[in-house]
Amino acid sequence: MRIANIISAFEEWANPALQESWDNTGLQLGDTSQDCTGVLVCFDPTPEVIDEAVSLGCNLVVSHHPLFFKGVKRLTPATPCQAAALKAIAAGIAIYSSHTAADSTPGGVSYCLAERLGIEPKRAMQPQANRLVLLQAIVPRTHALEVQAAIFDAGAGKIGKYDCCSFTVDGHGTFRALDGAHPYAGEIGLHTSADEVCINAVLPIEAMNRVESNLLKTHPYETPAYQFLPMLNRLPDVGLGIYGIAKEPMTAAEFVEHVKRQLGCKAVRTTKIDLDPEMQIRRVAMCGGAGGEFIGTALAMGAQAYITGDVRYHDFVDYRDKILVIDAGHYETEAPVKAAFARVISSRFPDLPVHCTTADDNPVNSL
After folding, report:
1. Mean pLDDT over residues 235-251, rounded?
2. How far apart are the C-alpha atoms of 10 and 13, rounded to whole Å?
3. How far apart are CA 177 and CA 102, in angstroms?
4. Which DSSP state fits 358?
C-alpha cells in the first residue's frame, strides 16, 4: 500500500478543499509513491515526533498542524520546523497535515471535542457556502437508472444522512443528427423524438469532475445534454465550530469543572460563572483551537456556553455578562482529533500499523 493511497483515503474524510484560504493543508514533504510502512498521528510535527516515527518504523506522519505555515528560504536545524523537515527527509518520511480541512469536516475537530464533552452536535457554527452544485442531466428513460447509479457512485445525491437522492422529471426530447454524427437513436438528417427524463441531483463542488466522468461513461448519447448549477445553500454540518445540546445539563460552575476534567486542563479562563446560579447549561457551542472570533456567532445561535482557545482579553470584556465563555486552551480543544485521525486510517487499512504519538504534548504550561 503506497503512501498516496493512505492520503487519498484520508482526504475522502477531510477533503483539502474544505481548508480556509490562508491555510496550508496537504502534503508538506515526502515521496508518496513509497510503500507505507506505518503511520504516526500527531498534533504538531516536531523533531521529537519524527524521531518517534523512525523508532516505530513509520514513514508517514499525519499531523493536525501544518509543518510549513510561512515561506521557507533555507533548511537548517535552526528552528523546530526546519529541524523536523531535515530529519524527515533524511529518514524518507512523508508528512501530511490536515488542519482546517479537519476543522470543517463532519466528525472533525469540534465534533471530537463535543464527543469528549458529551455534547450532541446539531449544526456547524460557520456552515460553508458555495460548496454545492445541482446537476441536471437529460437521459433516455431506458438508461435513467444506470446513469443515476453511476453519478451516485461518484458522490452525487448525498444530502445529510441520506444518499442516492435525486428528483426526475419525465419529458419528451427532440433532436436531428447531422452529417458525421453517430446517433444512439434515429437517422442522419431525420427529426427524432425520444422519451427522456431530467435527473436532478445535488453534489459537493469537489465531486464535479468524478460525477461528470461517470455521467459521460454511462450516458448512451454521443453528446449528452447536462449542466451544473451553483447553489447558495449552506452545508449545515460542514464548517468551523459546532452548536449542540448537552446530554446532561449542569450549572455554569459544574460545567466549567466538567470541561476541565474531560480535557485534562489544569486551569481554564472564563467569563463570570455566577451570573445565574440556577441556570442549567444545555445549549453549547464550541470551536477547537483559536475560535475567539466566533463568540458573537455562538451567542446569536442561542448558546449559553462557548468553548474554544486563545480568547483575547477584549473578548472577555465584550461578552462578560452575555455568555459563559470558556478558554480551555488551543491544544486541549484540538488534541482529541488525533484519535479520529488514527481511527479513520485504521478503519480503511486495518492491516497497516497506525500509532498515536507520545512525543508531542502541550507546549503551554499552566502552573
Report:
1. 93
2. 5
3. 50
4. S
Quick one: angle between helices 208-218 and 144-153, nearest 10? Answer: 150
Q: What mean pLDDT value characterizes the chain?
A: 95
**Angle at CA of residue 213, ends 212 and 219, nearest 5°:** 85
Residue appearing with cell numbers 458525421: 180
Q: Helices (DSSP H) in the chain: which residue ranges?
A: 3-13, 47-56, 80-91, 100-104, 109-117, 144-153, 208-218, 252-263, 295-300, 313-319, 330-334, 337-348
Full-model pTM: 0.86
Q: Distance between CA 13 and CA 107 in Å, rounded? A: 9
* pLDDT tens column, 102-129: 999 999 999 999 999 999 999 999 999 8
Strand, helix or coil at 24?
Answer: coil
pLDDT in tens, 138-167: 999 999 999 999 999 999 999 878 999 999
Give the separation between CA 212 and CA 216, rounded to whole angstroms: 6
**Using an 8 Å Cβ cutoff, are 156 and 203 in contact?**
yes
**Rounded Cα distance, 55 and 149, in Å:** 46
Residues near 106 by beta carbon (within 8 Å), at least 6 away in sequence: 237, 238
Please tell me the predicted confidence (pLDDT) of residue 273. 81
CB 26 within 8 A of CB 16: yes
